[in-house]
Each structure stands twice: as structure tokens, then as C-alpha cells.
Amino acid sequence: MDYGNLSLKKKIIQAMGHKHMSKPETQSAPPGIDIRPYNHTEDYKTVLKIWNSVGNGIHVSFSDEPAELEKLLRVSPGLFFLAIHRGNIIGTIMGGFDGRRGLIYHLAVLPEYQNRHIGSYLMNYLENELYKRGCRKIYLFIVPENIKTADFYQKLGYEQMSAIPFTKILQ
Ligand SMILES: CC(C)(COP(=O)(O)OP(=O)(O)OC[C@H]1O[C@@H](n2cnc3c(N)ncnc32)[C@H](O)[C@@H]1OP(=O)(O)O)[C@@H](O)C(=O)NCCC(=O)NCCS
Asked: Mutual orientation of helices 66-75 and 40-53 as an angle, nearest 10°?
């Protein structure tokens, strides 16, 4: 295969068949919706209520206990955002970046606010923040009970991976 004058980075990407994440376009906010960063002291209780109220798409686990979230906020500051309508929290998105991959967790929009492009706006907002930090590839997980959400992510340009995730809990 002849890669001609392509830069080394492009050559490697092409050789591996990888798609490169291009800079996300910036969407405008849905009417009346603001985004602000999560404040751990003030917002935790409300956010937890939202996660527990949106159905089986979000599994609240030990990782969502306050001390665990503090670790995420320390390692990946400034990547946890809230959607606000009339001063109330109506949506959440939490991101992480380890220097190699971005991860998206706990995207949630209160049921009465769904299908108003708030979820996709939160995704776009976080993608831009991840991109600014140098993130070029994002992972996110859908639990099998919530497979219907795959269509939502596909609309936003996400592709299903062929990897089988493994996990281990360190006690
Ligand atoms: C998934 C979720 C965040 C989507 O938020 P939302 O604000 O309703 O989504 P949007 O309005 O931005 O939808 C964007 C597009 O995806 C479509 N869409 C939204 N949810 C969809 C679904 N479940 N299946 C298929 N398409 C969907 C919308 O119709 C819209 O299409 P359009 O651009 O052609 O108009 C929201 O349904 C939710 O909070 N669900 C419960 C929690 C959850 O499952 N989170 C995901 C964890 S992996």
C-alpha cells in the first residue's frame, strides 16, 4: 500500500483502519437550556435523584457514592455537566479522559424534557470539551436492557464496537 506523502500519524491511522475523531461542530443550546459544571457539594443529591429516576439505562452503583465521584472529579476535572432549565437541573452528563480515551457516563435527561435535543446537546458539549483536552476517541457503554438507546448514539455518529468488555472490582 502506498501512503505517499501522508504524515506519519495519518499513515498509522490509515494502516490500522481507524477513524479519527474530527473536531465536533458546536451545536446551539435548545431554547431555555443552559449548561453549567457540576458542583459536588451543592448538586450531588439532586443529580443522584435524577439518575435513580430515569429508568434502567443508568445503573447507580458504588462508583456513584460521593467519595468515588470525588476521585473522578480529581482525575478528570471540568468534564461533568448539568443541563439547567429555569434554575433546575434537568439533565446530566459525566466525562472522563485518561490521556488516551474519553469515557462518557450517566447521560440522563428527565423524562418530561426528553426529545427536545437536550441529550444530544449535552453530548455535543462534552465532546467539545474532550476534544479541547486532546481526546480523539470516545467510549461509552449501553446496558443490554437499554439497547433502544443505540439508535440515539448512532444518530450522533457513534458506532458499535466489536470488543467484549471485561471488568474486575478491586476491593
Ligand atoms: C437517552 C437520552 C439521554 C436522550 O436524550 P433526549 O434529550 O431525549 O435526546 P434528543 O432529544 O437529544 O435526541 C436526539 C435524536 O435522537 C432521537 N432519540 C432520542 N432518544 C432515542 C431513542 N431512545 N431511540 C431512538 N432515537 C432516539 C431523537 O428523536 C432525536 O432525533 P432527531 O435528531 O432526528 O430529532 C434520554 O432518553 C434519557 O435520559 N434516557 C434515560 C437514561 C439513559 O438511558 N441514558 C443513556 C445511558 S447509556
From this structure: 110
- pLDDT, tens digit, 9 for 90 and up, residues 27-52: 999 999 999 999 999 999 999 999 99
Instruction: Tell which residue, 98, 106, 118, 107, has the closest CA to residue 31.
Output: 118
Q: Which of 47, 109, 145 to mutate to test the pocket of ligand 1 (most atoms within 8 A of CB)?
A: 109
DSSP 28-92: PPPTTEEEEE--HHHHHHHHHHHHHHS-TTS---GGGSHHHHHHHHHHSTT-EEEEEETTEEEEE
Helix (H, G, I), strand (E, B) or coil at 168: coil
Mutate to test the pocket of ligand 1, among 59, 120, 156 (most ligand atoms within 8 A of CB): 120
Set out the domains of the chain in order of their start, with CATH numbers: 32-155 (3.40.630.30)
Q: How many residues does the chain have?
A: 171
pTM of the model: 0.91
- Give the model confidence (pLDDT) of 13-31 as tens digits: 444 445 557 889 999 999 9
